[in-house]
Amino acid sequence: MSSPPRIETLGQLKAAVDRGEYRRRPVKDEVRENLADRLRRKETLFPGIIGYDDTVVPQLTNAILSRHHFILLGLRGQAKTRLLRALTSLLDEWLPVIPGSEINDDPLAPLSAFGRHAVAAEGDGLPVTWLPREARYIEKLATPDVTIADMIGDIDPIKAAKTGLQLGNELAMHFGLLPRANRGIFSINELPDLAGKIQVGLFNILQEGDVQIKGFPVRLPLDVMAVFSANPEDYTARGKIITPLKDRIGSEIRTHYMASRAEAMAITTQEAWTERGSEVQIPNFVREAVEELAFQARQDRRVDKRSGVSQRVPISVLESVVSNAERRALAAGETTVVPRIIDIYAALPSMTGKLELEYEGELKGADVIGRELIRSAVSQVFDGHFPDADVRQVVEWFDLGGTLNLGDLEPASGVLGEAKKVQGLVDLAHRVGLPADASAPWLASAVDFVLEGLYAQKKISRSDGRGFHGSDIRRPSQPDRRTPVLTPDDDDDASGGDGGRGKKKRYYN
User: Fold this and answer.
1) pLDDT digit string (tens) for 107-137?
2) How many CB atoms lie within 10 A of CB 2?
C-alpha cells in the first residue's frame, strides 16, 4: 500500500480540491467509478474468485453499477463472504476523516455534531487523518442476540454526566456498527438471523437516514453501501425477512457451487494448505478423487440438500490426505510425499463433520456414508482415466486366488514389490499420466489408484481388517468376487481406520 497523501489540514484539503487532486464522492459512486475503471482496463474484477466469471460476477457488476444495496444468496461454502470482502478493493486507497470522529466524518462536510463542532472551532487548521480502505469495511455476523444498540447505537450516560450534556444530545450518544461504517461498506452475514426490530432499524436508516436511540430522534443521512449474505431457504421460505427491508435491497444475487470439477479443483488448490516442510507432489487423480467426493455428496439423497456441501469439504480432505501421506513418508524415511487414494479414507474425520445427513443417512452412520461416497468418487475418476482399458489380466489374477497385502503405512518399495506379483498391474499404473521421471512413491500411488479403482467398480474385493496378513484371511468357502471379504474384526468399513494405532492392512482378492 502506498503512503497516505501529504495533506494534514482542512485548508490543505480544500486547496487539493481546487487543484483537482482530490474529489469528494458518495461511497456508491466511488465503488462504481473504480469498478468502471477496471472494466475499461480489462483487469480481473475480483482476484481469487474462481468459477463465477459468467454467472455471479456479471450480476454483481450490474448491482454495483446500479448503485444498489445487494444480497448474496447461497449455500455454505460458496464464497459469499469472500466476495463481500473483495469489495474493499474497489474503494479509494485513502479517505480523509476528522480525527476522533466515530462515524468517519468528512472534513469538507461533517455529518455528526462532533464533526461540525470540530470544524467550527478550528477552521482550516483542523487536522486531517487519512483512513485506509481496509478500515472502511465493517462486517457483522447476524445472531439472535444482536441488539439495536450494537447496530445503531445507544445513549452513554457516563459521557453525558462527564460533559454535563442532556441525555438526548447527540454528543452523549455512542454510535453502533452501522453509523461507524459511514463512508464505507457495511456487511451483514446471515441476515435472516437478525431479530425483526433490528431489521426495522436497518431499513429505516438505509432509506431515510432517521435513527431513534432510546426514543431520541437523530437525523443521520449516512453514506453507506450495505451488502448482505443469506441462505436462500432462510431468506425466502421461512419468512425471516421483513418485507420493507427486502424491498430496499436492490439486487438479489444467487451464488452456486462449481459446475465443473476443474474449477472446483482450482479453488481447492488455491485454498488448501499443502506446502509442507517436505516436498509434496499430489497426483492429479488424487486431486480429482478428492474433488469428486464433494460432487458425489451433493447428489446423494442421504445428504441434506438444504444445508449443502461446502467447498471446505475437499479443502479439508485434501489437507488431511497430504498429512496422512506425510506421516507415511516420515515413517518410511521417504523424502518425497506423494498421497494415495487410500489416504482419502484416512481423511474421513475431516469430512464427516461437514456433512448434514438426512434421516436415512443418520441411520446408516456418517462413516459408512463417507466411505460409500469415496468409493463412488474413485469409481468416477477411474472411469475417466481408464475408459477402455483392458483390466482382465489383473482381475483374473485375483479371481484365481491371488492376494495382495498392502498396509496403510506401506512404503513405496513395499507397494511396488507386491504389485510386481500381479501381471499387468504396473503396466496399468503407467497409464495414469505419470511424470517422465516418476519416483517410486509416484508409481506406488498409481498402483494404489488402479487397485482402489478396480475395487470401487467391484471388479475385485477388499477387506480393511487390522493387523492381518494375506495368508491369515479367513475366506468363505465360495466368496462373492464382487463384494468385500470381511474378517471377524472388520466392522463393515465403519471403524474409520486404525486411529493411528498401527498399520491398516488392505487385502485384495
Assistant:
1) 999 988 889 999 999 999 999 999 999 999 9
2) 6
> What is the distance between the alpha carbons of residues 491 and 464, in angstroms, rounded to a whole number?
9
Please tell me the distance from the alpha carbon of residue 435 to that of residue 283, in angstroms, as a whole number: 9
Task: Answer positive or negative: Cα dihedral of 65, 71, 74, 77.
Answer: positive
Read off the C-alpha cell for 415: 507397494
In whole angstroms, what separates CA 393 from the centre of its chain? 44
Rounded CA separation 398/375 (Å) = 19
Single-letter residue type at 282 = I
In the block, which residue shows the cell 495382495?
Answer: 404
Question: Residues 111, 181: contact at Cβ < 8 Å?
Answer: no
Q: List residues bridging with 130 in a β-sheet.
A: 96
Residue with cell 443521520: 220
E-strand stretches of 380-502: 404-407, 462-463
* Cα–Cα distance, 149 to 270 (Å, whole number): 39
Query: Which cell numbers in the block locate residue 124?
Result: 482550516
Task: Report how far residue 220's alpha carbon sits from residue 167's, in angstroms, rounded to the nearest whole number.
Answer: 17
207: nearest Cα among 190, 220, 194? 220
Judged by DSSP in three states, 186 sits in: strand
Q: What is the spatial distance between Cα 357 and Cα 365, in angstroms, rounded to a whole number?
A: 9
Phi, psi of 235, deg, nearest 5: -80, -30
Distance CA 221, CA 207 (A): 9
At position 190, the amino acid (one-letter code) is: E
Give the number of other CB atoms < 10 A from CB of residue 303.
20
- CA 185 vs. chain centroid, Å, equals 21
Structural domains in the chain, CATH included, are 10-254 (3.40.50.300), 261-508 (no CATH)
Span of 62-76, 95-109, 417-431, 456-470 with lowest mean pLDDT: 456-470
Digit-coded pLDDT (tens) for 236-276:
645 578 888 888 899 999 999 999 999 999 999 999 999 88
CA distance 231 to 310: 13
d(CA 299, CA 159): 58
